[in-house]
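[step 3/7] fold_predict: job queued, chain A
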Amino acid sequence: MDFMTAVKFCFNNYFTIQGRAQRSQYWWYALFTLIIAIIATLIDSAIGMPLFYLVFVLATLAPSICVAIRRMHDKDKSGWWLLICLVPIVGPLYILYLFVTRGTEGENRFGPDPLA
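[step 4/7] structure written:
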């Protein structure tokens, strides 16, 4: 999946948590949010108030959570596993490990393999 396809898919499926998200979809969307967050922060620092960054965060909060849940589904784990990030140090590292490794090969309980 390329950059534009991943971003469009995430915004078209704004509240969709069913299905699976391949690694490229998640990481292209993460790169998009990082780039726009940096640009919004630069604009906000120029105008002196955090208006653009706040609007950006509110606009991308739901799709970010949904694509993370779909990424967990690709690893055959429930979206509730994202709460492990609340465990200091170990939790975020485990989630990062899950996000960078390949998903379950073949069909799992959340749907068919997105790479098939």
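[step 5/7] annotate
Residues 3-100 form one domain.
The chain is about 60% helix and 0% strand.
exit 0
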